[in-house]
Every structure is written in structure tokens, then in C-alpha cells.
Amino acid sequence: MALAFDEYGRPFIILREQEQKTRLRGLDAQKANISAGKAVARILRTSLGPKGMDKMLQSPDGEVTVTNDGATILEQMDVDNQIAKLMVELSQSQDYEIGDGTTGVVVLAGSLLEHAERLLERGIHPIRVAEGYEMASRIAFDHLQHISQKFEFGLDNIEPLVRTCMTTLSSKIVNRCKRDLAEIAVKAVLAVADLERKDVNLDLIKVEGKVGGKLEDTELVYGILIDKDMSHPQMPKRIEDAKIAILTCPFEPPKPKTKHKVDIDTVEKFQTLRLQEQKYFDDMVQQCKDVGATLVICQWGFDDEANHLLMHRNLPAVRWVGGVELELIAIATGGRIVPRFQELTPDKLGKAGIVREKSFGTTKDRMLYIEHCANSRAVTIFIRGGNKMMIEETKRSIHDALCVARNLIRNNSIVYGGGSAEISCSVAVEAAADKYPGVEQYAIRAFADALDSVPMALAENSGLQPIETLSAVKSQQIKENNPHCGIDCNDVGTNDMREQNVFETLIGKQQQLLLATQVVKMILKIDDVISPSDF
């Protein structure tokens, strides 16, 4: 794009390869952008809440994903439009930062855009709309802080954490075992949490899945699970008080780096070579035995001869263990990863109370459990399920629950769910709008109306009359001055979310408001779109 002037000094823009570009300006550009954002939000609207629908997505190579998680749906969708991509990034940033609420944030942003469109049609300048939204989001942010409640828990009182995780899991496929899964998630987080620093390293929680069994068989292993078995079928399947050598060097004779050729013309020479190789293997196995190792875990493979020798010397071994798993085993057992046999010393061995091999069902599937480790700060959640899709979706659900538990440990304030926080903010923003003179108050009112879209979507997805239900709950909140009234999605018979135990984290809700407002402001400020044409 270049700027030029004609003979009268009037500026005009020259577009390079103009016939191949399309250009939208002013209100047309804003409307096109808003409709793109609304289209993305409309897709996710039906998967909000405990009665939300799931989406089935097929990737180009034929892999099928069935999911309810907003970030996953948008990630798997092939989105071309630039503004729609912004919405995808919006849900991803909510996922990275909070881990939960990825659907709600997109629905809220879509609703804000929809209400902004009406204001633009009335001739209000987009910048004034954006500023009004910014003011309104600040009011709502402070109001959330005001209605939130502190929430005490300890290592012996985990019930509050479990209830909050159950709220997260209630909107997923796995909601029939939400109690068990929530308890597993909370125990896993508390096992690796540093409660003094209020920090949780989720990398120490490994989530493994195996097709077979049923969802109720999901278990929490205080240790590490690896999808490998002993390298020789006759090695012992159970080792107690194991001392583990963690190696990243292969069990094989050293190879010269240069090109080489060995000429063998007699049987004796071959015999010598074979004995030499055997001596190498012997020395390697002996070095492991000398330092007192009772189990070898190796990143590389070893050939049959080494395998045979290890078996004869009663040294169980596991081969082809991945790098990430090796690191986790080293963290859990307190061992060091050894790159060369010469560096093996007794203090570099990891210690585990029990290492056992477990087989599943009638198949030959076997896994290694490394439990009762020296440092029990690494745990594994082992998921079972009827098919691969179910396991993948359960992994995503568990990830959301882990993130919620982590957020509560960082900041133990909660607000009540079921749309109650949004309705309460909407009432507060509406009341504050009159204090602002000027055009911004229209935008502030529009923000209050847009907040109602989340409870409305919840009511719609639960098969209730959306407008009727919303107005009833809103009037009840105002009448009783009770910010805990929300949509009764599960038809329990009460609108009070305290009785239904539906909680959400305060930082998650505040993040939703801020992110949605930022993205909408950004979209409203775009007034010129130059894009390559389709043909």
C-alpha cells in the first residue's frame, strides 16, 4: 500500500495488485467483523453449561474428536477469517491462564459485539462504545470482588475444593462420575502443591489413559505409570525397595565415529570379536550391579544378548522409556539421569518402595507402576474408558478440574455459578450507568444487557423458557438483594446456588470479563479491512 498525491495535492492510496484485493471500510468493515465474531460465538453457545451439547469434529486425516471444551472446539475448527481467529485466540488465552470458562468467554464476547452493532447503527462512534465497555467492565470487575466469598480449606478439609471441581466437571461428558473425578483431581493437586508459596506445578501431574475398563476404574497413583513392560518375559514382575538406575546410554558396544571396516577371515577372529562384545556387555551389567541397582530404566533399546545377560544376572530392565517420563521418574524417585556407565554411583540411584507390572484385561497390555517413591511429589492420574474419544475428553475434563483446584489454592475467593454472578453484575452495571453523562452510558447499558446472554444461554440449553426464566431470577435477585440466585439448570427446585453447591473461581470470572472486553474493543477499533480476494 502506498500514498500518492494528484496534481491538485489531494492524497489517494495506491494498492499493490489492486485487482487481487478486496477492501471494506467504515461501518461495513465493522459490521463484517462483528458478524464473524458472532458466528463463532453462536457455534459455542449451545455447549455452555451442564446441559450443553457436544461437538464432533473430524480432522483432515480422518481423526474424530468429540468434545464440550470451548478451547478444543475452536482449536480443531479450521478458521479462515481474521476476526474469527481472534475469538479462537481469546478462548486459548483463557485456557492457558485459567483452564476453565473457555466457552463462556467466547459467548460473552459474541454478545458484546451483538449489542455494539446496535449502537453503531444508531450512529454512536465505535471509540465511544469501546470506552463505555471499558468503564462497564471495571464496574463489573469490582462488583465481582464485592460479591465473592473467601473459602477456607486445608489438607484435612478438601470438601470445598471438591465441590468447586464438581461444578467444572458437571458440564462435561464425565458428569456421572464427577464426584470421584473431582476427588482424584483435588488429591493430585494437593499432593504436588506447595501450600506455603500457594503454587502448584501441574507438570508433576501426569495424566495417562488406556482404552478398556470403565470410567469408574480411573485411579490416582502416588507415583509414576509408564506404558512399558519388562524387557524380558522371565524377569520378576514385582520388585520391592527398588534402587533404580536411570540411564540415557544404550546397552551396546561403543561404535567408532569414523567409517570403519572389520575384516574377519578366520573363525578365531570372529570368536575373539564375539568375546570382546560379550565382555563389553558383561562390564556394563556388572557396573550396574556394583552400585547396587535392582532395576535399570533405559532410554534406548538393547539387543537380545544384553537382554539375555541382564536376565541371567537377575537385573530387571525396562527399555525405550521416553525423555519426559525419565525426567518424571527421576523427580519422583530422587534419582539422577546418568548419561554414561562410568558415572554410575550409588547416590545417583532413585528409590521406590515398590515397582510392579500390571496387565489389563485379556489383551497383552501391560504397564509399570512405580509407587511409594522417595519424593512423592509426582503423581499420575490413570484414566480408563470405553473408547479413545472418551479417554481424550476425560483428559481434557481432568485438566480443567486440575486448573480450577490450582486457581483456588492460589486465590481462595469464589463466586456462585449458574449465571448468578453475571446477573448480579448486570444489575450493578445497569444501576451505575446513570452516573455517567454522555454517550458512554448507552454502551454501559449495552454491556449490562450483554452480560445477561450467559444465563440466557444456560436456560436455553437446559430446555427452559430463556427470557421468562432470566427475568424471574433477576427480579428475585433484586427483591431479595441476594447475588446467589442463578438459573436452575438441573431442575433441583431452588434457584439459590449456595444450596446447589455451584461455585466458580473469582479469578476465572474476572479474567473472562477482562479478556472479552479487550477483544471486543480491539475488533471495534478496526475500520478498514484489506484482504486478498478469494479468486
Explain this structure.
This protein is of the alpha+beta class. It folds into three domains: 19-150 and 418-532, Orthogonal Bundle (GROEL, domain 1); 152-222 and 378-411, 2-Layer Sandwich (GROEL, domain 2); 224-375, GroEL (3-Layer(bba) Sandwich), CATH 3.50.7. The protein has 17 helices and 21 strands. The chain has helices at 26-45, 70-76, 82-97, 102-121, 126-147, 159-169, 178-192, 267-290, 304-312, 323-333, 388-410, 420-433, 440-451, 453-461, 466-480, 497-500, 506-524, and strands at residues 2-5, 11-14, 21-25, 55-58, 64-67, 149-150, 193-194, 199-200, 205-211, 219-221, 223-226, 238-247, 295-298, 317-318, 337-338, 350-359, 366-373, 379-385, 413-416, 503-505, 528-532. The strands form seven sheets. Strands 11, 12, 13, 14, 15, 16 and 17 form a seven-stranded mixed beta sheet that branches. A three-stranded antiparallel beta sheet has the order 6-19-20. It has a three-stranded mixed beta sheet with strand order 9-18-10, with helices on one face. Helix 8 (267-290) links the parallel strand 12 and strand 13 (295-298). Helix 6 packs across helix 7 (178-192), helix 6 packs across helix 11 and helix 7 (178-192) packs across helix 11. The chain is globular and about 100 Å long. The two termini are 20 Å apart.
